[in-house]
Amino acid sequence: MKKYDVCIIGAGASGLAAAASMSDGIKICLMEKNDIPGKKVMATGGGRCNITNAACINKALTLEFFKSLGLETYQDDEGRYFPYSNHAPDVVGILMRAVEGKDVDIITGTAANDIRQVNEKAGDGERFQIEYTARGGKKGSVAADNVLLAAGGKAAPQLGTTGDGYGMARALGHRVERVYPILTAIECGDLSDIKGVRAKCRISLYRDRALLISELGEVQFTADGISGICVFDITPHIRAEEGESFIQALRHFSVELDLAPDFDEEEIFRRESTFGILSEKLAQKVGIDELKRWRLPVKGVKGWKQAQCTAGGVTLDEIDMETMESRLVEGLYFSGEIINVQGPCGGYNLQNAWETGIKAASALNRRYGEERRRQYR
Questions:
Q1: Tens of pLDDT along 294-329?
Q2: Computed over its alpha carbons, how large is the radius of gyration of the chain?
Q3: What pLDDT, in 10s, does the model give residues 240-275?
Q4: What are the residue ranges of helices labelled H in 224-347?
Q5: Which positions ≥6 away from 116 have C-beta within 8 Å?
């Protein structure tokens, strides 16, 4: 059985950032279920990879990290940062160049199934044994002194993120808060007559009569509901309360669309028609009385395949958020979407992935640096 200092489970954004940040001399195993690392990163930001956002508190950490690797970025008018090339695969490429310069075995097409704790570290023994299944069903295991669980969430399972890490976290004693898809479209019923129509809108989400959140942006109507960034950003608030099923919760939610956010009601009621503010097709459906307050039921949200992010995950009070090490299991670290941290569209969730991966690597670098200093005293 091969032995490593660190086994990183998941070669997505967070796992790659961690591996690229490791000090020389640390022996690493980077295990990835997909045939290639960074598959989901390549699909982010419409293929451009929205790296971070000007509003992110620790954006400098991310920008300096990528600058150190040689990747140039730019900020758009909305505060989003992209690679200067506007090409997401370049982000993966520059991360891989950094990773391949380390003492690392990159094992692709291999899914981790279980993390078993070894009773005590003694001599050259390791704390963990990681069981895996490789291509063709071949099973095996590796040993590691430390494990970084960066397996992602459940959003976009077609890109390999199917929630495998939650079971491993639970088996090691960690609590996983209920997960559900977010940053996705909302189902409101049959809207096929205005499918494809876009409109500037202020969208407000209500639970019964309580306003939860309001966002301004462009709404796109689909055959069964609404989509668009402003829609995606309200979906984290569509969730069940304690002891309530999601189906039961949906009965309480509705959205209200203000399709003329730049006009006051007095201006609206002087008009004979909404045509001229709205496109002709939308004006045929929405009258003057509804223009500022068109209420639609929330019948559901699009599922994991269309979701951009996972809400819920490994609870934060069991993790040291400065080092990303488990408070329950020595040598176990978490990073990225597997933990219960989420943000809106616009680079916030990738910021979480890079930042937590870099923090975990920094903590491990300090640990191994201290061990080396002790050896040479």
A1: 999 999 999 999 999 999 999 999 999 999 999 999
A2: 23
A3: 998 999 999 999 999 999 999 999 999 898 888 999
A4: 229-232, 246-250, 265-269, 280-283
A5: 128, 129, 130, 131
Q: What is the mean pLDDT of residues 11-31?
A: 97
d(CA 344, CA 336): 15
| Residue 181, strand partner residues | 310
With a threshold of 0.85, does the pTM exceed it?
yes
Mapping DSSP to helix (H, G, I), strand (E, B) and coil, where does residue 353 land?
helix
Structure tokens at 232: 């995606």
Token readout for 298 is 């929330």
Structural element, H or E, at residue 333: strand 332-334
69: which 2 tokens?
């690797």
Q: How far apart are CA 159 and CA 276, in angstroms?
A: 42
Length of the chain as a residue count: 377
Closest to 261 (Cα-Cα) out of 233, 290, 234, 292: 292
* Torsion (CA) 356, 32, 164, 323 in degrees, nearest 10: -20
Q: How far is CA 154 from the centre of its chain?
A: 9
